[in-house]
Design a protein that fits this description.
Elements: H1 2-32, H2 37-54, H3 62-81, H4 91-110, H5 116-125, H6 133-152, H7 154-162, H8 164-169, H9 174-196, H10 198-215, H11 219-244, H12 248-271
Length: 272
């Protein structure tokens, strides 16, 4: 047990921090029906990191991080500008196009770099077991600031996510608030993907929120359920990884998948 705590304490703390911010953002993502926005932003961030590599900067340097973030902000601007009062084309289509173009651009840029493709792959896959206390503190501070920002403007964000037509009627600058949402989301994705990888981040973003939405129509209740599910599944995934000697990220993602299936079955039985 001592060895388990020594190895898994910091990764588990990271999972708790991920749950805190991603379960909340996941509610917005599902309401907005932009499920794959985190994948697109992660791909855009990778393009920024690849540009940094071409200029001879280390993938772990602060310059690379800010380069990635700068590209992510450009992506946020694209997503906010493609929100219209009458949405003829689903935003998910725009997100898919941005993802595909970003992936192609990444290939073109990395063709100019010798071993950059391997470094970018590692950055996207991540390894949560290697996280240290400094990174824990860093993401806690970043996510806390973003959480406070969203709490201060929760009425605007929730109104636009849940009822964009009403937001337009009330005269809100929807594109501006969308830009702020995607920029703050970009901060989270840029930091989280580098630590845990795309699949783990996607699971934390979507699964707890999906489970919560299945069982409640109230935003506060959904958030509490999402946090509770995220905390519990993180512990299960970590334990499964350690005691069964499985890769940590894959264990956590699979634990989320099994949990979703179980809760869907429970919902169906309770409905009967």
């Amino acid at each position: 047990m001592t060895a388990f705590l020594h190895i898994m304490t910091l990764p588990f703390l990271a999972c708790l921090i991920f749950t805190g911010i991603h379960a909340y953002l996941g509610l917005h993502v599902i309401e907005r029906q932009v499920i794959f926005v985190d994948l697109a932003l992660a791909q855009i961030a990778a393009v920024g990191a690849s540009v940094a590599l071409v200029f001879g900067l280390s993938i772990d340097s602060p310059y690379s991080y800010w380069m990635s973030l700068g590209f992510t902000i450009v992506g946020a601007a694209i997503f906010s500008l493609t929100r219209f009062k009458k949405q003829r084309v689903p935003q998910e289509a725009i997100i898919g196009i941005v993802y595909a173009v970003s992936a192609a651009l990444l290939i073109l840029i990395l063709s100019r770099s010798g071993e950059g493709d391997e470094q970018i792959r590692q950055a996207l896959v991540g390894n949560i077991l290697l996280i240290n206390l400094k990174e824990i503190v860093k993401i806690f501070v970043i996510y806390s600031i973003i959480g406070l920002f969203h709490y201060a403007f929760r009425k605007q964000f929730f109104l636009i996510s849940q009822n964009p037509e009403e937001a337009f009627k009330k005269g809100l600058n929807v594109r501006f608030w969308d830009f702020l949402f995607y920029v703050s989301f970009g901060f989270v994705v840029t930091s989280s993907v580098k630590i845990a990888g795309v699949l783990v981040v996607f699971a934390f973003l979507i699964v707890p929120s999906t489970c919560a939405i299945i069982f409640s129509n109230v935003a506060k209740t959904r958030l509490m359920l999402g946090w509770g599910i995220g905390f519990l599944v993180s512990a299960i995934g970590m334990a499964m990884s350690y005691f069964l000697d499985f890769p940590t990220g894959a264990s956590v993602v699979c634990a989320f998948g099994v949990t979703l299936v179980i809760l869907l079955g429970a919902k169906k039985i309770l409905a009967i």
